[in-house]
Amino acid sequence: MTTIRRSYAIFVESLRILAKDKEILIFPFLSGVITIVAFLTMVVAGHNSGLLQEFQAGNRLLGYVVLFVWYFVSWFIVLFFNVAVIQCASIRLRGGDPTVADGFRASMQHIGRIALWALISATVGIILRVIADRAKIIGKIVVGLIGAVWSIATYFIVPVMIFEGRSIGDSVKQSTQLIKKTWGESLIAAGGIGAFIMLLAVGGLVLPIAAMFISATAAIIALGVTVIYWIALSVVSAALSGIFRTALYLYAAEGRTPEGFTPDYVQNAFAMKAKTASFALSRG
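User: That's the sequence. What structure does it adopt?
Assistant: Structure tokens below.
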């Protein structure tokens, strides 16, 4: 219950930060739009070039090549706009007033690192996919766990890269160290944001369900409204997650609670139980 209350409080406080800088929403919105455009472009290009037909005919190697390209493109798009969100969030949490230009400027300054990390992420993704395709049920579970561990270990990779200017290898190491410091509490709290967004998304089903009792036309219109509502929620969710991730990073890096957050909520995300801490120290 304590974790739920803390997660809810963090959700509300992140929302208040976002309310001060609504322009941050433009970044996850553009990320989604451009990702969809990129996907459709690849599909059309694949169809016109004949690659899509070869893929459908069972050319597995070609399929992996295309999938790798898609992984890289989608990761690059997501990272580009994530950098913008985190940069703007950092400015606000340090007491400043960010602009959209600040976000785009940061993304362009780090575009080399963004491309390199997108390449690494795509490589890891395709390796795990190849293994999963060839593995049996247990193997697929193991691959899934490896993928989850990789995602957790690189949770802070973006703020580390853009604020500390480290190499990719050092950034991964630093991100892992920060995760060890939080002992998973940060992920639980950040997951709480997703949980509350999910509850709001499920609540959106009330409208189309109620409209079904009116008429088929009303149900279709209501479903369209609900889809738009879900898209808006996903945009807000991405912005809130970026804001809270930045707040956690700034607390870890500077030792002070970022402006707009209650000290106890952020500090508790880094609290270790005495026994666990002693065990970790004893291991080196």
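Residues 216-254 form the longest helix (39 residues).
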